[in-house]
Amino acid sequence: MAMGETAFEERIESVSEVLPSGDAERLGDLYTRDAELLPPDGDFVAGVPSVVSYWQDVAEAGVASVDIEARDVERDDELAMRTGEAWMKDTAGEVLDHVKFVEVWRPEDGTWRIHRDVWNGMGEE
Predict the structure, then answer these.
(1) Which of 10, 59, 105, 124 has the greatest number of C-beta atoms within 10 Å?
(2) pLDDT of residue 41
(3) In angstroms, rounded to a whole number, what is the distance separating the alpha carbons of residues 37 and 52?
(4) What pLDDT is stored for residue 125 in this prediction?
C-alpha cells in the first residue's frame, strides 16, 4: 500500500522534535518494532524499548534540541533513506555534538518509521 509523499515528509520533519523530547510514546512510534540504532563507539541498540531508553538517556544528559539538515532523501513505496547532518544542542543552544547520519525508513502498520539509524561524529569544527 503506497503512502503519500506528504505523510512521509511529515514523519521526517517530526524527528527533530521527537528525539530530544524524552516522550516514550512518541519515541516508540517513530521506530519500527525491530529497529536498530548504531550509535558511535557503542553496541547495537535493538528494539523499541531499548531505542526509547537510549533517546531518553540522551535527553536526560542535556540534549534539548536536534537541528537536522538533510543532504539527500530517496524513497519508493517500500523503503526510504535519508542522509544528512545533525546538531544536538543544550538548552542554551550550545552545540553538544555535530554528526553525520543515515536513516533507513520503512512503512509499518500504515506509518513510515525509522528502521535503521546510524550516525558518527563530524570531528572538530
Answers:
(1) 105
(2) 92
(3) 10
(4) 57
Q: Residue 124 and residue 110: Cα distance in Å, rounded? A: 41
Q: Is 5-121 a CATH 3.30.420.40 domain?
A: no
Which residues, including other chains, have CB under 8 Å from residue 110's CB and lie 6 or more apart? Answer: 1, 3
CA-CA distance, 42 to 38, in Å (whole number)? Answer: 7
| Nearest in space to 86 (alpha carbons), one of 51, 122, 55, 38 | 122
Question: Consecutive sets of 10 residues in the chain, 125 residues long: mean pLDDT of each?
Answer: 70 89 91 97 96 93 94 94 96 95 96 97 77
Q: What is the predicted pLDDT for the residue at 27?
A: 92
Can you tell me the distance from the alpha carbon of 104 to that of 73, in angstroms, rounded to the nearest whole number?
A: 10
Say if CB 72 and CB 85 are below 8 A apart.
Answer: no
What would the 3-class secondary structure string for 48-92 be? HHHHHHHHHHHHHCCCCEEEEEEEEEEECCCCEEEEEEEEEECCC
Residues 6+ apart with CB under 8 A from 118: 37, 38, 39, 101, 102, 103
Looking at residue 1, its pLDDT comes to 41
